[in-house]
Each structure stands twice: as C-alpha cells, then as structure tokens.
Request: fold
Amino acid sequence: MTRLAILSLILAPALFAAGPGSMPSTGGMHRSPHEDAVGYYNAAERRLDKMSKLHAELKATTDPQKAATLRQNLNKGLEAAAADFRRATDNDPRMFQAHSELGFTLRKLGRYDESLAAYEKALEIEPGFSPAIEYRAEAYLGLGKLDEVKSAYMLLFDGDRPKADTLMTSMNSWVAQQRTTPTVDAAQLDAFGKWLEARQTLAGQVPAVASADTFRSW
Reply:
C-alpha cells in the first residue's frame, strides 16, 4: 500500500498512535486543522490496508455465501475510509493526496461520478499527480469513456511509464470482461481493442524505467 508523501506526517509522532479508523490522540495538545487532516488520512489508509486483504480473499473464494459476506464487509470498510478521507479534505482542502484517495475509494464502491469529481479536485490542486491521473482513467473505464482513457494513457506513457503500464493492465482486463459482458457498443469495443494492441506493441519496443514508487494494485 502506498503511503503518499505528506511532509507534515513527521510533525507530531502522537498522530501515529491511534488504532485503525480512529482519530489519533495528542495527549491534550492542540492540533491544527492540517494535523487533524493528516490523522484522518492515516486512519483511512489503515482501513484501505485491511480492505485490500478482504479484496484478495473475495477474488480467491468460490463460496457464494462467503463472497457475499466479504463483499458486505469490504463495502462497509470502504465507506468508512471514504468518510475519513472526506474529513481530511474538510480539514485541509488543499491535501490533494486525500482527494485522490477519496476518488479511489469511491471508485471501488462503484460511485464513478463522485470518484471523478474527487480526482478532478486532486488534479486541480496538483495537475501532474500521476496516481490521480491513472486512477481517474480507471474510473473512465468504468463509465466507458474510452477517449478519455486513451488520453490519460498517452499522458502517463510520456510522464510516468510505470503508471502507464498499470493502466495498460487495467485496460486489458476491462476489454476481456467486455468480451463476455459488454456494456459498450461492439464497434467501439473493437476499435479500442485494436488501439490497445497497437499501444502494447509500441510499449514493448520502449523499455520502462524502473520506479521506486509503489502503487496500489487492487
């Protein structure tokens, strides 16, 4: 799980003492709104760490009853994380990382329009923030906005190749799913599939530069 770089995380060690999903205690010390935002952000990130494990269990299970329970628990955790990310942005509206992570969380809940609004806010504050660009493209995929997906891929290919490769994987998965349960026009899907094949061929001819950054894979 990525911990996005927020410099003020080092300001108050007490911010890290709280359990998952709770605001940290500062022993009676006065907190600034930004420090409160950091606390909510960290609480939400801890929730997402737990939800990633539930997501892996959900993908692995073949038991319908267990899957239903896991899905219910996953959605509850995502809703709680979204609430904490909103609290973070309420306390510090300029925390673009929290806006981006809110977008991720809402997308995982299938709330694509709200997700896009959160990504747009993150990119309004920090236009070159590549995680939000990639995550937003996945929301576009969910809505079938393929021209926007292609534009995002081209932007990432030139500016953050590892994120472009992540998006490529998501595009391939989306196309495979669309072949069995289509939600877009067949001609549109075929055209996108051909574009994707051409981009994969080109990507194979242009080596990627290794990145020290980590990125949430679910």
Remarks:
- Residues 146-208 form one domain.
- Residues 1-21 have pLDDT under 50 and may be disordered.
